[in-house]
Design goal:
Length: 227
Amino acid sequence: SAAGGGTITPSGETTVTRGQSVTFTMTPDSGARLLSVLVDGRNIGARTSYTFTNVRAAHTIQAVFYKSTYSITASAGAGGSISPSGATNIAYNGNVTYRITPNAGYAVSQVLVDGQNIGAVGSYTFRSIRDDHTIQALFERNSFNIAASSSEGGSISPTGTRAVAKNGSMTYRITPNTGWKIKSVLVDGQSIGAVSSYTFSHITEDHTISAQFERYAYTISASAGQG
């Protein structure tokens, strides 16, 4: 096998007839250098070729390369940022720390390092860097807005726009003024009737609520008799 910026030929598993020999060649990629060769786990130095002779047992060989710099590419989804962002070049065996910051109303949902989820962390450090890497921060909403309004003739409480935590609840009270009554209450644009209160439960999205009022109407009948 080969690691860190180069190839070994032949690679993978090679079948050798008992008593025969096989030679392996180590070739660094452009901008990389051969650091060491491990034969059966033993470092034999930075040799560009190695021959197993009179093979009578299974063996392993690994070529370890290194580049002077490696690239780490950082990105963030909607709802937050990662710093530093984009592609950053880091010296061989160096370290770099990334900070993950959600926007207001958002939380970190997961951080992917080389495609693997390492959890909803606020920072991550690559140490002893000897390969290229990627890091991606993903975010999710952790609060949602409910906008409340009312027409002439009464009030709704609380009024205006309120932020509510994800999966939270919020109750609204609708109160007509003297001489007025509730005509209808609209939740997300749909009438739910002339209710005097309404509760949003297990909130996972933005909502609107609007209270509509109308005046009481009275009929006065007047008549005159014969005298």
